[in-house]
Amino acid sequence: MVGAVCLGLLTAACGSGSGSGSSSGGGTLTAYVYGDGAVKVQEAAVAEFNKTSKVKVKLVEIPGDSYQNKLNAVMSSPNAPDLLYNWGGGSIKPFVDAGELLDLTPYLTQDSSFKSSFLPSVLAAGAIDGKNYGIPMRGMQPVVLFYNKTLFTQNGLQAPTTWAALQTAITTLKAKNITPVALGGADAWTEQMWLEELLDRIAGPSVFQKIAGGDSSAWGDPAVLKAAQTAKQLIDDGAFGKTFTATSYTNNAAPTLLGTGKAAMQLMGTWDYSNQLANHKEFATKDEGWVNFPTVDGGTGDAADVVGNPTNYWSVNAHTKNKDAAVAFLKAMATADYANKLVANGDVPATTSAKDLLSSSPNPAFAQFQYDMVQKAPSFQLSWDQALPAKQATQMTTEIGKLFAGQVSPEQFVTDMKALK
Questions:
Q1: Contact 279/255 with Cβ under 8 angstroms?
Q2: Quick check: helix, strand or coil at residue 315?
């Protein structure tokens, strides 16, 4: 099986990973990366590093839809990569538990300038059990509530920073036959965002932290039930329209509702701004507004908390013979040159120096909003389906889909979630 997987990942990559080379006499660091349009920034970083390093980095770009499966298949083999792109949390926990990833905490502790180069909340999101296994290497991807400024102004509405303001907007927009919130419910991960935000605003990050730590009984916390009940109330109130369960995000149907003025809001990761800019440029540049998720009445969660994908990370194979070279490559992620390349690509780097670079972003105001939001966040909760092990995450999104489709009650949802193993 390993041989077949290696063939699928480009034969040249196999045999050049953790078992080859030495830090003193040269060699190769094989780096697996998610292959998409943003990879050009990593390509440039590799080319720059290889100019001066005796140990060269070989970038292996793997199509996004098969990335995690292929990584899982080779990580325990002699052909595992030396460096691997990941989302932190559940995406790497099995590797950490198996002793396959290098604890980077000592390297960050020994080099204070390296550690202080990254926003603490983002760096912490790449940790497992308090130990750092990831270094930020792409832009931040928090979830925000996008809204149509023109529709809000025309209807005398305020940016929905409170639950009362959100409810007023929903009632007002429904009366005008405008779908209040675009939701691609055919993709359950879009519905997950609402529960993530609601649970945090109701109870703060501690409940899901227990769940992510392996305590499935924490799904029985009263705050989870309240979050599910609140989501059901939104559905019953018509916040998402009548056809959201058949509307997809991945085929661009949900974003198009927002971009064409047929819906007034959408809760989505900040990556959707680039999507709107590409497909509905006039809306994105003139009418699109954004706020952090509203506060919830009676909730104890901090209004400044953030959920989403803090960023993507580089992790290091614990068995690589080129640890020093691998860490040297990771330190390049902390440089202003690398941050500048991310900004030019439309990303907001997770570095503390990024604030001074954002004026060159394609949308400086949106970039500054993201940066300030994450910098001030007491907590940045990793998306649930990335924080949990793959099997649990799949079961969880299935149950979330049932809740939003009205196939189970909030009470049954909690019971089903407690049974996840």
A1: yes
A2: strand
pLDDT computed for residue 13 by the predictor: 38
Gap between the Cα atoms of 173 and 155, Å rounded: 8
Query: Do 236 and 244 touch, CB atoms closer than 8 A?
Result: no
With tokens 């419910």, the residue in question is 185
Q: Are 317 and 185 in contact (CB under 8 A)?
A: no
Residue in the block written with tokens 């300030």:
372
Structural domains in the chain, CATH included, are 2-140+310-382 (3.40.190.10), 141-308+389-418 (3.40.190.10)
Q: What is the spatial distance between Cα 170 and Cα 183, in angstroms, rounded to a whole number?
A: 14
User: Which tokens in the block code for residue 80?
Assistant: 């595992």
Instruction: Give the pLDDT score at 226.
Output: 98
Task: Give Dmax (Cα) for the chain.
Answer: 72
Q: Are 198 and 224 spatial neighbours (Cβ–Cβ below 8 Å)?
A: no
Pick from 382, 379, 338: nearest CA to 212: 382
Instruction: Name the nearest CA neighbour of 32 among 388, 386, 309, 316.
Output: 316
In tens, the pLDDT along 112-147 reads 999 999 999 899 888 998 999 999 999 999 999 999
Report CA-CA distances (Å) from 59 to 12, 29, 33, 34, 62: 11, 8, 7, 10, 10
Question: Residue 196 is encoded by which pair of tokens?
Answer: 């993530």
Instruction: Return the half-sphere exposure (C-beta side, CA atoms, 13 A cut-off) of residue 79.
Output: 21
**Is the pLDDT assigned to residue 280 strictly greater than 50?**
yes
SS (H, E, C) 113-179: HHHCCECHHHHHHCEECCEECCEECCCCEEEEEEEEHHHHHHCCCCCCCEHHHHHHHHHHHHHCCCE
381 — alpha (psi -120 to 50), left (phi > 0) or beta? beta
| DSSP letter assigned to residue 334 | G
Q: How much is the pLDDT for 4?
A: 35
Q: Tell me how far apart the alpha carbons of residues 340 and 293 are, in angstroms, rounded to a whole number.
A: 29
Q: Of 205, 419, 201, 189, whose CA–CA distance to 303 is shortest?
A: 201
Alpha helix segments (H runs only) across 204-305: 206-212, 222-236, 253-259, 272-279, 281-282
Structure tokens at 414: 């909690």
Count of all residues that appear for the chain in the document: 421
Residue type, 317: N
Mean pLDDT taken over the chain? 91
Q: What gap in Å lies between CA 249 and CA 125, rounded to an integer?
A: 26
pLDDT mean over 39-49: 95
Q: Which residues pair with 118 in a beta bridge?
A: 351
